């Protein structure tokens, strides 16, 4: 029995456990390129990170805002599309294939496309806006518009994932309650509110929890779209750790930030599971 | 596109509602496709027309030729393809047995293993990829195939073992018991009886795994340098270094999309079926 998991366990030990232990070790040391001795500094990197105004007032709020809006947005749109596809209509297969398109696009490519479309001088978005008489915006040069583009990209990328899983969930629901509701002449909204939604609950909870944990660690689209700019105002937690470790070459502080993030997401993941489950029940 | 075959309500939906529905579906499809269509259109524009993609009708394949003439980009495509293929084969080999174990065995070891992969699934990539940079350097595999391939397999273990468990849970174990009674070993029962029934699900996972690895960015950014460029990192560098050459940029991105499209088009049946489990 152990032989069955031996290769997987060995790989995980070497490439996940060893690095995590090493990162934890580095987070207590002055691990900068100019200090070959790697002096033990205790908790000072942790204190640095949690008292850093950039971390508290920009990075953490950004990360949680990103998580909330992108997951809720993709869930809402994904659910609508799944409900429509579940009705079945001519050409449904083709529509489904088209809607799954973003699922195969690399996040980096999605970010490149959006960056081009929202380019302040030549982007199609500004061209269209100016054609209808609205002034074009320097999207990537302002904090909130840049953040909105990041959110839009993420929702575009992940809506199909929600759609696919929710559609599968819808198709596995029993037919009888819906037939009974149809005979009783129940309105579509009441069917959705009192039948579909409660029965779909387990699928929604799982989707939201998995996707939230992944959204928390988002790196690639932000890195390619804004690089955390303008002036580090759209940085998320993963970028913060990366910037400190590889651009400021302060590996100790970067590791401390990465570990703080890991602890936060473990706690948030647990709370989120409870919360989503309760909200869906209530 | 389609028309409503069955009206939503018991009374016949009026034609206006039907037209609205068709229009809405059409609009949503267009919205979902637009970024990709725009990218393709940009990649076909000559340098003179690239800044005004919406004006003029000159098109060229020259961008693709120019990109393919760049040795570094071709190298990156080959690397990405090789790493994605190898990572797929190896990840599946490693996780199929781990998922089988999770599905068929009970007891403290199985419970501990399940708990372990569950917790590691939640750890943000950055927390172990940052130090992995130093680990791969001290083992001498930084910026090599091995140094990127092994972490990729490791990251897939948690999620895939979990999915594989689901696949095997859906397969009735009584056939395996019958094989065991007939004198088959546990390994024989796994390889000859359980594994063949799980093939459709495993194919779905293969498609997903290939896509994940081909599209992956953060690992490649941290664990590779000049020697082993991969396509996602090369493209991201493109944006910062050659920010103004949108025609070449788009051509590279379109070429990076093609393998993923082809794979998904042929594998969609499996992916949709696999994700439903």
Question: How much helix is in the residues of chain A?
Answer: over 70%
Low-confidence region ranges of chain B: 1-5
The end-to-end span of chain A amounts to: 43 Å
Which spans of chain A of ≥5 residues are poorly predicted at pLDDT below 50? none
- Based on the coordinates given, report the CATH architecture of the largest domain in chain B: Orthogonal Bundle
Per DSSP, what share of the residues of chain A sits in E-state strands of 2 or more residues?
Answer: under 5%
Average predicted local confidence, pLDDT of chain B: 84
Helices and strands of chain A, in order, run as HHHHHHHHHHHH
In round numbers, the mean pLDDT of chain A is 88
Could you name the CATH topology of the largest domain in chain B? MetI-like fold
Q: State the distance separating the first and last CA atoms of chain B.
A: 29 Å
Number of strands of chain B: 0
Structure description:
The complex is a heterodimer of chains A (282) and B (277). Chain A is mainly alpha-helical and 282 residues long. Chain A has one domain (39-281): MetI-like fold, CATH 1.10.3720.10. In chain A, 74% of the residues lie in helices and 0% in strands. Chain A has twelve helices and no strands. Chain B is mainly alpha-helical and 277 residues long. Chain B has two domains: 15-63, no CATH class; 65-276, MetI-like fold (Orthogonal Bundle). In chain B, helix 1 crosses helix 11 (246-276), helix 6 crosses helix 8 and helix 7 (174-181) crosses helix 8 (186-215). Mean pLDDT of chain B is 84; it is low at 1-5. The chains are: A mainly alpha (282), B mainly alpha (277). At the A-B interface, helix 1, helix 3, helix 4, helix 5 and helix 7 of A face helix 1, helix 3, helix 4, helix 5 and helix 6 of B.
Primary descriptors:
heterodimer, A: 282 residues, mainly alpha, MetI-like fold, B: 277 residues, 76% helix, globular, disordered N terminus
């Amino acid at each position: 029995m152990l032989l069955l998991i031996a290769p997987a366990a060995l790989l995980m030990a070497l490439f996940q456990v060893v690095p995590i232990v090493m990162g934890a070790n580095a987070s207590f040391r002055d691990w900068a390129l100019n200090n070959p001795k790697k002096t033990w500094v205790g908790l000072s990197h942790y204190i640095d990170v949690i008292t850093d105004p950039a971390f508290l007032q920009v990075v953490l709020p950004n990360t949680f805002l990103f998580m909330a809006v992108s997951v809720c947005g993709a869930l809402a749109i994904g659910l609508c599309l799944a409900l429509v596809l579940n009705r079945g209509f001519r050409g449904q297969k083709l529509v489904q294939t088209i809607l799954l398109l973003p699922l195969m696009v690399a996040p980096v490519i999605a970010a490149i496309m959006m960056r081009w479309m929202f380019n302040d001088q030549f982007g199609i978005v500004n061209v269209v806006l100016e054609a209808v008489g609205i002034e074009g915006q320097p999207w990537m040069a302002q904090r909130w518009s840049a953040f909105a583009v990041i959110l839009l990209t993420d929702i575009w990328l992940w809506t199909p994932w929600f759609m696919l899983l929710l559609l599968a969930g819808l198709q596995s629901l029993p037919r009888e309650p819906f037939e009974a509701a149809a005979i009783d002449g129940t309105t579509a909204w009441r069917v959705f509110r009192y039948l579909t939604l409660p029965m779909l609950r387990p699928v929604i909870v799982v989707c939201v929890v998995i996707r939230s944990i992944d959204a928390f660690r988002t790196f690639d689209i932000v890195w390619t779209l804004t690089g955390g700019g303008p002036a580090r105002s759209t940085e998320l937690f993963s970028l913060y750790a990366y910037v400190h470790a590889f651009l400021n070459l302060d590996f100790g502080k970067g590791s401390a930030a990465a570990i703080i993030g890991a602890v936060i997401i473990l706690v948030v993941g647990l709370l989120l599971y409870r919360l989503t489950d309760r909200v869906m029940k209530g | 596109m389609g028309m409503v075959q069955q009206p939503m309500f018991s009374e016949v939906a009026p034609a206006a509602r039907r037209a609205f529905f068709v229009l809405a579906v059409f609009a949503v499809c267009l919205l979902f496709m637009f970024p990709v269509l725009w990218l393709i259109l940009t990649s076909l524009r000559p340098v003179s027309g690239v800044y005004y993609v919406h004006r003029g009708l000159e098109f060229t394949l020259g961008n693709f030729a120019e990109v393919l003439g760049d040795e570094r980009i071709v190298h990156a495509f080959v690397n990405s393809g090789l790493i994605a293929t190898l990572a797929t084969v190896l990840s599946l080999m490693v996780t199929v047995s781990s998922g089988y174990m999770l599905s068929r065995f009970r007891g403290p070891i199985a419970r501990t293993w399940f708990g372990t992969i569950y917790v590691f699934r939640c750890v943000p990539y950055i927390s172990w990829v940052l130090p992995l940079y130093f680990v791969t350097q001290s083992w001498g595999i930084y910026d090599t195939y091995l140094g990127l391939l092994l972490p990729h397999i490791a990251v897939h273990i948690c999620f895939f073992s979990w999915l594989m468990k689901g696949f095997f849970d859906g397969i009735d174990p009584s056939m395996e018991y019958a094989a065991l009674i007939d004198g088959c070993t546990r390994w024989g029962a796994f390889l000859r009886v359980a594994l063949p029934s799980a093939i459709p699900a495993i194919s779905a996972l293969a498609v997903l795994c290939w896509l994940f690895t081909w599209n992956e960015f953060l690992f490649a950014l941290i664990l590779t340098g000049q020697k082993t460029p991969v396509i996602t990192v090369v493209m991201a560098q493109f944006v910062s270094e050659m920010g103004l050459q949108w025609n070449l940029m788009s051509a590279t991105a379109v070429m990076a999309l093609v393998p993923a499209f082809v794979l998904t088009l042929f594998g969609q049946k499996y992916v949709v079926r696999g994700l439903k489990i």
